[in-house]
Protein backbone atom coordinates (compact mmCIF):
# COMPACT_ATOMS: atom_id res chain seq x y z
CA UNK A 1 0.00 0.00 0.00
CA UNK A 2 2.76 2.42 1.03
CA UNK A 3 4.74 1.46 -2.06
CA UNK A 4 1.87 2.52 -4.31
CA UNK A 5 1.04 5.70 -2.41
CA UNK A 6 4.65 6.85 -2.28
CA UNK A 7 5.20 6.31 -6.00
CA UNK A 8 5.56 9.22 -8.39
CA UNK A 9 2.69 10.50 -10.60
CA UNK A 10 3.92 8.71 -13.74
CA UNK A 11 4.26 5.41 -11.90
CA UNK A 12 0.78 5.92 -10.40
CA UNK A 13 -0.66 6.53 -13.86
CA UNK A 14 1.04 3.39 -15.15
CA UNK A 15 -0.37 1.44 -12.22
CA UNK A 16 -3.87 2.75 -12.96
CA UNK A 17 -3.60 1.66 -16.59
CA UNK A 18 -2.40 -1.76 -15.53
CA UNK A 19 -5.23 -2.12 -13.03
CA UNK A 20 -7.69 -1.22 -15.80
CA UNK A 21 -6.11 -3.87 -18.04
CA UNK A 22 -6.27 -6.42 -15.27
CA UNK A 23 -9.92 -5.71 -14.39
CA UNK A 24 -11.07 -5.88 -18.02
CA UNK A 25 -8.97 -8.99 -18.67
CA UNK A 26 -10.54 -10.82 -15.78
CA UNK A 27 -14.00 -9.67 -16.90
CA UNK A 28 -13.32 -11.19 -20.32
CA UNK A 29 -11.89 -14.33 -18.77
CA UNK A 30 -15.04 -14.86 -16.68
CA UNK A 31 -17.30 -14.00 -19.61
CA UNK A 32 -15.50 -16.27 -22.04
CA UNK A 33 -15.28 -19.09 -19.57
CA UNK A 34 -19.05 -19.09 -19.22
CA UNK A 35 -19.91 -18.66 -22.90
CA UNK A 36 -17.38 -21.21 -24.18
CA UNK A 37 -18.26 -23.70 -21.49
CA UNK A 38 -21.95 -23.41 -22.42
CA UNK A 39 -21.13 -23.70 -26.13
CA UNK A 40 -19.00 -26.82 -25.65
CA UNK A 41 -21.54 -28.47 -23.36
CA UNK A 42 -24.52 -27.72 -25.63
CA UNK A 43 -22.61 -28.77 -28.76
CA UNK A 44 -21.92 -32.22 -27.34
CA UNK A 45 -25.52 -32.59 -26.25
CA UNK A 46 -26.85 -31.26 -29.57
CA UNK A 47 -24.75 -33.72 -31.61
CA UNK A 48 -26.16 -36.61 -29.56
CA UNK A 49 -29.64 -35.23 -30.05
CA UNK A 50 -29.07 -34.60 -33.77
CA UNK A 51 -27.93 -38.15 -34.54
CA UNK A 52 -30.68 -39.66 -32.42
CA UNK A 53 -33.39 -38.13 -34.65
CA UNK A 54 -34.15 -39.00 -38.21
CA UNK A 55 -36.25 -36.00 -39.24
CA UNK A 56 -35.32 -32.33 -39.47
CA UNK A 57 -38.76 -31.43 -38.13
CA UNK A 58 -38.11 -33.31 -34.88
CA UNK A 59 -34.70 -31.72 -34.49
CA UNK A 60 -36.08 -28.28 -35.23
CA UNK A 61 -38.58 -28.56 -32.38
CA UNK A 62 -35.89 -29.23 -29.76
CA UNK A 63 -33.42 -26.51 -30.73
CA UNK A 64 -34.24 -24.26 -27.76
CA UNK A 65 -32.66 -26.77 -25.38
CA UNK A 66 -29.25 -26.33 -27.04
CA UNK A 67 -29.37 -22.65 -27.78
CA UNK A 68 -25.76 -21.90 -26.69
CA UNK A 69 -24.23 -24.30 -29.21
CA UNK A 70 -22.88 -22.85 -32.48
CA UNK A 71 -23.97 -26.10 -34.19
CA UNK A 72 -27.56 -25.29 -33.31
CA UNK A 73 -27.19 -21.99 -35.15
CA UNK A 74 -25.78 -23.78 -38.18
CA UNK A 75 -28.63 -26.25 -38.22
CA UNK A 76 -31.23 -23.54 -37.75
CA UNK A 77 -29.84 -21.50 -40.64
CA UNK A 78 -29.79 -24.51 -42.97
CA UNK A 79 -33.26 -25.50 -41.85
CA UNK A 80 -34.70 -22.07 -42.50
CA UNK A 81 -32.96 -21.89 -45.88
CA UNK A 82 -34.43 -25.23 -46.88
CA UNK A 83 -37.85 -24.17 -45.68
CA UNK A 84 -37.70 -20.98 -47.71
CA UNK A 85 -36.54 -22.78 -50.87
CA UNK A 86 -39.24 -25.40 -50.50
CA UNK A 87 -41.84 -22.69 -50.02
CA UNK A 88 -40.69 -20.73 -53.07
CA UNK A 89 -40.40 -23.94 -55.17
CA UNK A 90 -43.94 -25.11 -54.52
CA UNK A 91 -46.10 -25.14 -57.68
CA UNK A 92 -43.14 -24.36 -59.96
CA UNK A 93 -42.48 -26.73 -62.83
CA UNK A 94 -38.95 -27.04 -64.22
CA UNK A 95 -35.64 -28.85 -64.16
CA UNK A 96 -35.45 -30.59 -60.77
CA UNK A 97 -31.70 -31.33 -61.07
CA UNK A 98 -30.80 -27.66 -61.56
CA UNK A 99 -33.06 -26.67 -58.68
CA UNK A 100 -31.42 -29.22 -56.38
CA UNK A 101 -27.91 -28.10 -57.30
CA UNK A 102 -28.91 -24.52 -56.59
CA UNK A 103 -30.31 -25.53 -53.24
CA UNK A 104 -27.10 -27.33 -52.24
CA UNK A 105 -25.06 -24.32 -53.26
CA UNK A 106 -27.23 -22.03 -51.16
CA UNK A 107 -26.99 -24.39 -48.16
CA UNK A 108 -23.18 -24.46 -48.50
CA UNK A 109 -23.09 -20.67 -48.56
CA UNK A 110 -25.36 -20.47 -45.53
CA UNK A 111 -23.13 -22.91 -43.63
CA UNK A 112 -19.97 -20.96 -44.50
CA UNK A 113 -21.54 -17.70 -43.42
CA UNK A 114 -22.89 -19.13 -40.20
CA UNK A 115 -19.57 -20.76 -39.34
CA UNK A 116 -17.76 -17.47 -39.84
CA UNK A 117 -20.25 -15.47 -37.79
CA UNK A 118 -20.20 -18.03 -34.97
CA UNK A 119 -16.40 -18.07 -34.94
CA UNK A 120 -16.39 -14.31 -34.70
CA UNK A 121 -18.90 -14.44 -31.87
CA UNK A 122 -16.76 -16.93 -29.97
CA UNK A 123 -13.56 -14.95 -30.55
CA UNK A 124 -15.10 -11.64 -29.48
CA UNK A 125 -12.97 -9.76 -26.86
CA UNK A 126 -10.12 -12.25 -27.13
CA UNK A 127 -7.98 -9.65 -28.88
CA UNK A 128 -8.03 -7.61 -25.66
CA UNK A 129 -6.53 -10.55 -23.79
CA UNK A 130 -3.81 -10.83 -26.41
CA UNK A 131 -3.09 -7.10 -26.16
CA UNK A 132 -2.92 -7.26 -22.39
CA UNK A 133 -0.65 -10.27 -22.48
CA UNK A 134 1.81 -8.61 -24.78
CA UNK A 135 1.62 -4.95 -23.74
CA UNK A 136 1.15 -5.03 -19.95
CA UNK A 137 4.72 -6.16 -19.11
CA UNK A 138 6.12 -3.39 -21.28
CA UNK A 139 3.86 -0.80 -19.70
CA UNK A 140 4.98 -2.02 -16.30
CA UNK A 141 8.60 -1.90 -17.39
CA UNK A 142 8.11 1.66 -18.53
CA UNK A 143 6.80 2.56 -15.06
CA UNK A 144 9.77 0.85 -13.46
CA UNK A 145 12.31 2.60 -15.64
CA UNK A 146 10.66 5.92 -14.94
CA UNK A 147 10.55 5.21 -11.20
CA UNK A 148 14.22 4.21 -11.11
CA UNK A 149 15.14 7.36 -13.01
CA UNK A 150 13.27 9.34 -10.36
CA UNK A 151 14.95 7.40 -7.57
CA UNK A 152 18.42 8.02 -8.94
CA UNK A 153 17.63 11.68 -9.36
CA UNK A 154 16.62 11.76 -5.69
CA UNK A 155 19.82 9.97 -4.71
CA UNK A 156 21.83 12.53 -6.66
CA UNK A 157 20.04 15.39 -4.92
CA UNK A 158 20.41 13.96 -1.42
CA UNK A 159 24.05 13.05 -2.01
CA UNK A 160 23.74 9.86 -0.02
CA UNK A 161 23.98 6.44 -1.60
CA UNK A 162 23.17 4.40 1.48
CA UNK A 163 20.83 1.44 1.08
CA UNK A 164 18.13 3.14 3.14
CA UNK A 165 17.95 5.95 0.58
CA UNK A 166 18.36 3.85 -2.58
CA UNK A 167 16.15 0.86 -1.82
CA UNK A 168 12.69 2.47 -1.29
CA UNK A 169 12.72 4.24 -4.65
CA UNK A 170 13.74 1.10 -6.51
CA UNK A 171 11.18 -1.07 -4.75
CA UNK A 172 8.44 1.47 -5.53
CA UNK A 173 9.48 1.40 -9.15
CA UNK A 174 9.53 -2.39 -9.31
CA UNK A 175 5.89 -2.52 -8.21
CA UNK A 176 4.94 -1.39 -11.72
CA UNK A 177 6.66 -4.38 -13.34
CA UNK A 178 5.12 -6.72 -10.79
CA UNK A 179 1.59 -5.44 -11.51
CA UNK A 180 2.28 -5.56 -15.24
CA UNK A 181 3.13 -9.22 -14.92
CA UNK A 182 0.14 -9.84 -12.66
CA UNK A 183 -2.10 -8.40 -15.39
CA UNK A 184 -0.32 -10.14 -18.27
CA UNK A 185 0.10 -13.69 -17.00
CA UNK A 186 -3.62 -14.55 -16.55
CA UNK A 187 -4.39 -12.80 -19.84
CA UNK A 188 -1.89 -14.94 -21.76
CA UNK A 189 -3.01 -18.14 -20.06
CA UNK A 190 -6.67 -17.27 -20.66
CA UNK A 191 -6.04 -16.33 -24.28
CA UNK A 192 -4.28 -19.61 -25.06
CA UNK A 193 -6.91 -21.63 -23.24
CA UNK A 194 -9.83 -19.99 -25.03
CA UNK A 195 -8.19 -20.05 -28.46
CA UNK A 196 -7.67 -23.77 -28.03
CA UNK A 197 -11.32 -24.30 -27.05
CA UNK A 198 -12.52 -22.15 -29.95
CA UNK A 199 -10.38 -24.13 -32.39
CA UNK A 200 -12.06 -27.30 -31.19
CA UNK A 201 -15.50 -25.75 -31.64
CA UNK A 202 -14.59 -24.41 -35.10
CA UNK A 203 -13.48 -27.91 -36.08
CA UNK A 204 -16.78 -29.29 -34.87
CA UNK A 205 -18.64 -26.66 -36.92
CA UNK A 206 -16.66 -27.61 -40.04
CA UNK A 207 -17.41 -31.28 -39.54
CA UNK A 208 -21.05 -30.57 -38.91
CA UNK A 209 -21.23 -28.42 -42.06
CA UNK A 210 -19.89 -31.28 -44.14
CA UNK A 211 -22.39 -33.66 -42.59
CA UNK A 212 -25.21 -31.24 -43.26
CA UNK A 213 -24.20 -30.87 -46.90
CA UNK A 214 -24.16 -34.62 -47.28
CA UNK A 215 -27.60 -34.91 -45.73
CA UNK A 216 -29.00 -32.16 -47.95
CA UNK A 217 -27.52 -33.90 -51.00
CA UNK A 218 -29.07 -37.20 -49.97
CA UNK A 219 -32.40 -35.49 -49.38
CA UNK A 220 -32.26 -34.00 -52.91
CA UNK A 221 -31.56 -37.39 -54.43
CA UNK A 222 -34.39 -38.86 -52.40
CA UNK A 223 -36.71 -36.35 -53.98
CA UNK B 1 -41.97 -27.97 -41.95
CA UNK B 2 -42.79 -26.82 -38.39
CA UNK B 3 -42.49 -23.33 -37.07
CA UNK B 4 -38.85 -22.65 -36.21
CA UNK B 5 -37.60 -19.09 -35.67
CA UNK B 6 -36.62 -18.28 -39.23
CA UNK B 7 -35.59 -14.64 -38.95
CA UNK B 8 -31.85 -14.19 -38.62
CA UNK B 9 -29.84 -12.08 -36.13
CA UNK B 10 -32.29 -12.69 -33.33
CA UNK B 11 -31.08 -13.17 -29.73
CA UNK B 12 -31.00 -16.91 -30.08
CA UNK B 13 -27.94 -17.37 -27.86
CA UNK B 14 -29.18 -15.13 -25.08
CA UNK B 15 -25.66 -13.87 -24.35
CA UNK B 16 -24.86 -13.04 -20.73
CA UNK B 17 -24.46 -9.40 -19.75
CA UNK B 18 -20.88 -8.13 -19.83
CA UNK B 19 -21.56 -5.72 -16.96
CA UNK B 20 -22.20 -8.57 -14.54
CA UNK B 21 -18.76 -10.01 -15.22
CA UNK B 22 -17.20 -6.59 -14.83
CA UNK B 23 -18.75 -6.38 -11.38
CA UNK B 24 -17.44 -9.83 -10.50
CA UNK B 25 -13.98 -8.86 -11.71
CA UNK B 26 -14.00 -5.68 -9.62
CA UNK B 27 -15.04 -7.65 -6.54
CA UNK B 28 -12.24 -10.17 -7.13
CA UNK B 29 -9.69 -7.38 -7.50
CA UNK B 30 -10.97 -5.72 -4.35
CA UNK B 31 -10.63 -8.97 -2.42
CA UNK B 32 -7.10 -9.50 -3.70
CA UNK B 33 -6.21 -5.94 -2.69
CA UNK B 34 -7.62 -6.49 0.80
CA UNK B 35 -5.84 -9.83 1.10
CA UNK B 36 -2.48 -8.31 0.25
CA UNK B 37 -2.75 -5.11 2.26
CA UNK B 38 -4.55 -6.46 5.33
CA UNK B 39 -2.82 -7.81 8.40
CA UNK B 40 -4.35 -11.29 8.62
CA UNK B 41 -3.92 -13.33 11.78
CA UNK B 42 -0.99 -11.18 12.84
CA UNK B 43 0.99 -12.10 9.76
CA UNK B 44 3.31 -9.36 8.70
CA UNK B 45 3.30 -8.29 5.10
CA UNK B 46 6.87 -7.07 5.34
CA UNK B 47 8.60 -9.10 8.06
CA UNK B 48 11.79 -7.73 9.52
CA UNK B 49 14.86 -9.64 8.42
CA UNK B 50 16.84 -11.35 11.19
CA UNK B 51 19.88 -9.49 12.35
CA UNK B 52 23.16 -11.26 12.92
CA UNK B 53 25.24 -10.35 15.91
CA UNK B 54 28.74 -11.67 16.17
CA UNK B 55 31.82 -10.78 18.07
CA UNK B 56 33.86 -10.63 14.90
CA UNK B 57 32.60 -7.33 13.61
CA UNK B 58 32.36 -5.64 16.93
CA UNK B 59 32.61 -1.86 16.53
CA UNK B 60 35.87 -0.33 17.67
CA UNK B 61 35.18 2.36 20.23
CA UNK B 62 38.32 4.33 19.54
CA UNK B 63 40.03 3.30 16.33
CA UNK B 64 42.79 5.85 16.86
CA UNK B 65 43.87 4.42 20.23
CA UNK B 66 47.55 3.46 20.32
CA UNK B 67 48.38 5.42 17.22
CA UNK B 68 51.05 8.10 17.61
CA UNK B 69 49.43 11.46 17.36
CA UNK B 70 51.49 14.03 15.47
CA UNK B 71 49.70 16.91 17.12
CA UNK B 72 50.27 17.64 20.82
CA UNK B 73 47.36 16.80 23.03
CA UNK B 74 45.51 19.40 25.05
CA UNK B 75 47.28 18.40 28.25
CA UNK B 76 50.67 18.65 26.63
CA UNK B 77 49.84 22.03 25.24
CA UNK B 78 48.49 23.34 28.49
CA UNK B 79 51.40 22.17 30.65
CA UNK B 80 54.07 24.73 29.67
CA UNK B 81 51.67 27.59 30.15
CA UNK B 82 50.81 26.45 33.64
CA UNK B 83 54.43 25.97 34.55
CA UNK B 84 55.47 29.36 33.35
CA UNK B 85 52.67 31.06 35.20
CA UNK B 86 52.78 29.13 38.44
CA UNK B 87 56.59 28.99 38.82
CA UNK B 88 58.19 31.87 37.01
CA UNK B 89 61.72 30.73 37.96
CA UNK B 90 62.59 27.52 36.20
CA UNK B 91 64.62 25.28 38.49
CA UNK B 92 67.43 24.61 35.99
CA UNK B 93 67.78 28.15 34.86
CA UNK B 94 67.80 29.44 38.40
CA UNK B 95 70.44 27.13 39.84
CA UNK B 96 72.94 27.31 37.01
CA UNK B 97 73.77 30.97 37.26
CA UNK B 98 73.81 30.82 41.03
CA UNK B 99 76.45 28.06 41.14
CA UNK B 100 78.96 29.86 39.00
CA UNK B 101 79.22 33.02 41.01
CA UNK B 102 79.56 31.02 44.21
CA UNK B 103 82.40 28.94 42.84
CA UNK B 104 84.39 31.77 41.39
CA UNK B 105 84.64 33.99 44.44
CA UNK B 106 86.14 31.12 46.31
CA UNK B 107 89.11 31.16 43.96
CA UNK B 108 89.60 34.85 43.37
CA UNK B 109 88.01 36.07 46.51
CA UNK B 110 86.18 38.64 44.43
CA UNK B 111 82.50 38.09 44.60
CA UNK B 112 80.83 38.92 41.33
CA UNK B 113 77.46 40.56 41.37
CA UNK B 114 74.66 38.04 41.23
CA UNK B 115 72.13 39.95 39.08
CA UNK B 116 74.08 39.34 35.83
CA UNK B 117 72.87 35.85 35.00
CA UNK B 118 69.38 36.65 36.23
CA UNK B 119 68.04 38.11 32.93
CA UNK B 120 68.66 34.81 31.12
CA UNK B 121 65.88 32.77 32.77
CA UNK B 122 63.48 35.72 32.44
CA UNK B 123 63.98 35.85 28.68
CA UNK B 124 63.38 32.15 28.41
CA UNK B 125 60.27 32.42 30.48
CA UNK B 126 59.07 35.29 28.45
CA UNK B 127 59.73 33.35 25.30
CA UNK B 128 57.90 30.37 26.67
CA UNK B 129 54.98 32.48 27.80
CA UNK B 130 54.96 34.22 24.46
CA UNK B 131 55.01 30.95 22.54
CA UNK B 132 52.27 29.56 24.77
CA UNK B 133 50.18 32.64 24.18
CA UNK B 134 50.80 32.39 20.44
CA UNK B 135 49.82 28.78 20.51
CA UNK B 136 46.61 29.56 22.40
CA UNK B 137 45.83 32.32 19.91
CA UNK B 138 46.46 29.97 17.01
CA UNK B 139 44.27 27.37 18.61
CA UNK B 140 41.53 29.91 19.17
CA UNK B 141 41.83 31.01 15.56
CA UNK B 142 41.61 27.40 14.41
CA UNK B 143 38.63 26.86 16.68
CA UNK B 144 36.89 29.94 15.30
CA UNK B 145 37.62 28.81 11.76
CA UNK B 146 36.24 25.35 12.51
CA UNK B 147 33.10 26.84 14.09
CA UNK B 148 32.58 29.03 11.05
CA UNK B 149 32.91 26.01 8.80
CA UNK B 150 30.47 24.07 10.98
CA UNK B 151 27.94 26.90 10.78
CA UNK B 152 28.39 27.03 7.03
CA UNK B 153 27.90 23.29 6.79
CA UNK B 154 24.79 23.45 8.96
CA UNK B 155 23.33 26.15 6.72
CA UNK B 156 24.09 24.09 3.66
CA UNK B 157 22.45 21.08 5.25
CA UNK B 158 19.38 23.13 6.08
CA UNK B 159 19.12 24.38 2.52
CA UNK B 160 19.56 20.89 1.10
CA UNK B 161 17.48 19.25 3.82
CA UNK B 162 14.17 19.91 2.08
CA UNK B 163 15.30 18.21 -1.10
CA UNK B 164 17.05 15.29 0.56
CA UNK B 165 14.93 12.18 0.77
CA UNK B 166 15.79 10.70 4.12
CA UNK B 167 13.29 8.10 5.32
CA UNK B 168 11.58 8.81 8.61
CA UNK B 169 12.80 5.66 10.31
CA UNK B 170 16.45 6.42 9.91
CA UNK B 171 18.32 7.31 13.07
CA UNK B 172 21.51 9.23 12.75
CA UNK B 173 24.84 7.75 13.73
CA UNK B 174 25.68 4.58 15.60
CA UNK B 175 25.66 3.83 19.33
CA UNK B 176 29.44 3.79 19.47
CA UNK B 177 29.53 7.34 18.21
CA UNK B 178 30.74 6.54 14.74
CA UNK B 179 28.98 7.96 11.75
CA UNK B 180 26.97 11.12 11.66
CA UNK B 181 25.46 10.54 8.26
CA UNK B 182 21.79 9.79 7.85
CA UNK B 183 21.19 6.34 6.47
CA UNK B 184 21.80 3.95 9.33
CA UNK B 185 18.59 2.01 9.77
CA UNK B 186 16.98 1.19 13.08
CA UNK B 187 17.91 -2.48 12.62
CA UNK B 188 21.57 -1.64 12.07
CA UNK B 189 21.48 0.59 15.10
CA UNK B 190 20.00 -2.11 17.34
CA UNK B 191 22.44 -4.67 15.96
CA UNK B 192 25.42 -2.47 16.72
CA UNK B 193 24.08 -1.70 20.17
CA UNK B 194 23.61 -5.37 21.11
CA UNK B 195 26.97 -6.20 19.63
CA UNK B 196 28.54 -3.54 21.77
CA UNK B 197 26.98 -5.03 24.87
CA UNK B 198 27.94 -8.59 24.11
CA UNK B 199 31.14 -9.86 25.64
CA UNK B 200 32.36 -13.42 25.46
CA UNK B 201 35.81 -14.87 25.38
CA UNK B 202 36.02 -17.64 22.79
CA UNK B 203 38.59 -19.33 25.05
CA UNK B 204 35.70 -20.26 27.35
CA UNK B 205 34.17 -22.34 24.60
CA UNK B 206 35.05 -25.65 23.11
CA UNK B 207 37.18 -24.79 20.06
CA UNK B 208 35.68 -27.50 17.91
CA UNK B 209 32.21 -26.02 18.55
CA UNK B 210 33.02 -22.40 17.74
CA UNK B 211 32.25 -22.66 14.06
CA UNK B 212 28.79 -24.11 14.62
CA UNK B 213 27.70 -22.37 17.76
CA UNK B 214 24.66 -20.19 17.16
CA UNK B 215 21.62 -19.04 19.07
CA UNK B 216 18.45 -17.36 17.92
CA UNK B 217 16.60 -14.83 20.05
CA UNK B 218 13.48 -12.75 19.45
CA UNK B 219 13.48 -9.26 20.93
CA UNK B 220 10.61 -6.82 21.05
CA UNK B 221 11.36 -3.15 21.56
CA UNK B 222 8.80 -0.44 22.13
CA UNK B 223 9.00 2.75 20.16
CA UNK B 224 10.58 4.35 23.25
CA UNK B 225 13.54 2.01 22.80
CA UNK B 226 12.69 -0.20 25.79
CA UNK B 227 12.91 -3.96 25.60
CA UNK B 228 9.35 -5.15 26.14
CA UNK B 229 9.99 -8.88 25.99
CA UNK B 230 12.49 -11.36 24.72
CA UNK B 231 12.81 -15.07 24.30
CA UNK B 232 15.59 -17.33 23.18
CA UNK B 233 14.06 -19.41 20.44
CA UNK B 234 16.98 -21.65 19.70
CA UNK B 235 19.62 -21.83 22.43
CA UNK B 236 23.12 -22.82 21.40
CA UNK B 237 23.41 -25.56 23.99
CA UNK B 238 26.54 -24.06 25.48
CA UNK B 239 25.79 -22.52 28.85
CA UNK B 240 28.63 -19.97 28.66
CA UNK B 241 27.48 -18.78 25.26
CA UNK B 242 23.79 -18.63 26.23
CA UNK B 243 24.56 -16.79 29.45
CA UNK B 244 26.66 -14.24 27.59
CA UNK B 245 23.94 -13.44 25.11
CA UNK B 246 21.32 -13.20 27.85
CA UNK B 247 23.55 -10.69 29.58
CA UNK B 248 23.94 -8.80 26.31
CA UNK B 249 20.17 -8.68 25.84
CA UNK B 250 19.58 -7.50 29.38
CA UNK B 251 22.29 -4.89 29.00
CA UNK B 252 20.56 -3.74 25.83
CA UNK B 253 17.14 -3.39 27.44
CA UNK B 254 17.17 0.37 27.03
CA UNK B 255 18.35 1.80 23.74
CA UNK B 256 20.05 5.18 23.91
CA UNK B 257 17.51 6.68 21.55
CA UNK B 258 13.86 5.97 20.66
CA UNK B 259 12.88 3.96 17.61
CA UNK B 260 10.54 5.18 14.85
CA UNK B 261 8.00 2.50 15.82
CA UNK B 262 7.63 -0.74 17.77
CA UNK B 263 10.16 -3.27 16.58
CA UNK B 264 10.16 -7.03 16.90
CA UNK B 265 13.26 -8.62 15.51
CA UNK B 266 15.05 -11.92 15.27
CA UNK B 267 18.65 -11.79 16.42
CA UNK B 268 21.11 -14.53 15.57
CA UNK B 269 24.25 -14.71 17.66
CA UNK B 270 27.21 -16.58 16.24
CA UNK B 271 30.99 -16.76 16.12
CA UNK B 272 31.40 -18.23 12.68
CA UNK B 273 33.93 -15.88 11.18
CA UNK B 274 35.86 -15.77 14.38
CA UNK B 275 36.22 -19.53 14.20
CA UNK B 276 37.40 -19.26 10.63
CA UNK B 277 40.05 -16.71 11.46
CA UNK B 278 41.24 -18.57 14.52
CA UNK B 279 42.06 -21.76 12.67
**Computed CA radius of gyration of chain A, to the nearest angstrom:** 28 Å
Oligomer: heterodimer
**Into which percent range does the helicity of residues of chain B fall?**
40-55%
Q: Treating each run of at least 4 consecutive H or I residues as one helix, how many helices of chain B?
A: 7
**Overall mean confidence score, pLDDT of chain B:** 68
Principal-axis shape of chain A equals rod-shaped
Please state the CA-atom Rg of chain B, rounded to the nearest Å: 39 Å
- State the largest interface: A-B, 41 and 32 residues
The average pLDDT score of chain A comes to: 86
Count of individual domains of chain B: 2
Task: Write up what this structure looks like.
The complex is a heterodimer of chains A (223) and B (279). By secondary structure, chain A is mainly alpha-helical. Chain A has one domain. Chain A contains seven helices and no strands. The longest helix of chain A has 60 residues, at 163-222. Chain A is rod-shaped. The N and C termini of chain A lie far apart (75 Å). The relative contact order of chain A is 0.17. The mean pLDDT of chain A is 86. Chain B is α+β, with helices and mostly antiparallel strands. Chain B folds into two domains: 51-59 and 169-278, Fusion Protein Consisting Of Minor Coat Protein, Glycine Rich Linker, Tola, And A His Tag, Chain: A, Domain 2 (2-Layer Sandwich), CATH 3.30.1150; 74-161. Chain B has seven helices and four strands. Chain B has a four-stranded mixed sheet with strand order 1-4-2-3. In chain B, strand 2 (214-221) and strand 3 form a beta hairpin. In chain B, helix 2 runs antiparallel to helix 4 and helix 5 (186-197) crosses helix 6. Classes of the chains: A mainly alpha (223), B alpha+beta (279). At the A-B interface, helix 2, helix 3, helix 4, helix 6 and helix 7 of A face helix 1 of B.
Amino acid sequence: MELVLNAGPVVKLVLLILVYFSVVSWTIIFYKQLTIHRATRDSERFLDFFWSKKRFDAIGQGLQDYRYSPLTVLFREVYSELAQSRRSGEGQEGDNLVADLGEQERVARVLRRSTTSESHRLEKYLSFLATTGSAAPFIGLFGTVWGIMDAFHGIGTSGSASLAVVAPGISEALVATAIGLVAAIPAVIGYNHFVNKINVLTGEMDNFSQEMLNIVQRMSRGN
Amino acid sequence: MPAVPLHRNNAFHNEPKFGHFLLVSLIVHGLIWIAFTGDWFGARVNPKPPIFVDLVHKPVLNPQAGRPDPRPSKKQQAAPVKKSVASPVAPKAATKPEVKPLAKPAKTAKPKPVPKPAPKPDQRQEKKVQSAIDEIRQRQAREAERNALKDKLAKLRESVGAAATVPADVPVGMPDGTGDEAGVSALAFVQAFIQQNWALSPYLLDRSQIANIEAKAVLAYSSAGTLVRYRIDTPSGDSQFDDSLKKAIIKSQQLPQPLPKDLELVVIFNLKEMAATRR
